Amino acid sequence: MAKSTLKVRLFPRAEATVRAGHPWVFSDSVKSTNRSGEAGELAVVYDRQDRFLAVGFWDPDSPIPLRIAHRGEPVRLDRSWWLSRAAECRARREVLFSGETNGYRCINGDSEGFPGLVVDRYGDTLVVKLYSAAWISRWDEMEGVLREVFQPTFLIRRVARNLSGIEEGFVGETGPEVVVFQEMGLHFEAAVRHGQKTGFFLDQRENRARVGELAKGRDVLNMFSFSGGFSVHAARGGASRVTDVDISAHALESADRNFALNPELSSVPRTGVQADAFRWMGETQERWDLIVTDPPSLAKRERDKAGALKAYRALNAQAIRCLKPGGVLVAASCSAHVRAGEFLGMIREEVRRSGRESRELWSAGHAPDHPAAFAEAHYLKAVAMELG
């Protein structure tokens, strides 16, 4: 006997939030369901007047048991519907990139109506990362949609750490585990099989380019440098020297390879330092013309926010100390629990506390292929401050 449709009713405040466009329904927002639901099952939300409000994926074991895929008029979430949505995502990217960039996000999860699923392209390789168990039961359908719309040569499925027992790796033909792709004419490697995120930090693309524009004739320090993305752009922009600092020898080796992929940059002197960036910054007596501080997320949970802001403040106060007169600080944060206003306000306050004249050059968020349609999706923020 076929199961009845899983019907969900929300408390009034959550109902208003969903109607306003937020795609997440937390467990304490669910007022009632007509029966128990299984992970991956479609759930329909009805409002207090018993009218259709939205439809999404149910995941009873998640703190976000319902992720909204569509709101408004009732629709059937079949293959043709997903195909149309994926094609819309592709069309949005086609106007963003020239032939000099073939590494970018194709689908940005909940913000584009694909709850708990992101898709990144690196050349001919498509990396699909699942953040919700809801996709497992409909994987075959979604794989077909992605292959038809984006036509990759190779496809990799990866899953978030909170999902266990789900096979990862190449689906179909096996390709290279490290892929070389282009970003604004520069070449980088992406560890698509085992690297962080989907293999590279695509969300900082435009901020890396902005650093390149600031770098001419400057001595550049890249803190938490990882695979050297900011440094490669700075070298192309005419930096007089670049220094990478990261605690990981593997990351510094990746930066070495990225510079080697761009032999036209070989004339720019470069130093790699393996060290704890926080400690190293507090001890160094050197000075630079341009410093980038881009640590990994320092607030995994809301309760970590106060400690994260304290760490960001200490790090950037030391960076300001290490800036030459006329130098530029580019400070970034990818901690979703630290809001943009909090982070930017803290940086501006530290600049004022330094007593140095200053000028804010720019502030920015995600790259345009990472659209953010709700507050929690706005995780990335960066600001450039020139100090006298």
UniProtKB/TrEMBL annotation:
GO terms for biological process: methylation. Its main location: cytoplasm. Residues 8-68 form the RlmI-like PUA domain. Keywords: Cytoplasm, Methyltransferase, S-adenosyl-L-methionine, Transferase. It holds the Pfam family PUA_3. Its EC number is 2.1.1.191. It comes from the Bacteria. One of its GO terms (molecular function) is RNA binding. Residues 180-336 form the S-adenosylmethionine-dependent methyltransferase domain. It is found in: Cytoplasm. GO terms for cellular component: cytoplasm. Belongs to the methyltransferase superfamily. RlmI family. This is 23S rRNA (Cytosine1962-C5)-methyltransferase.
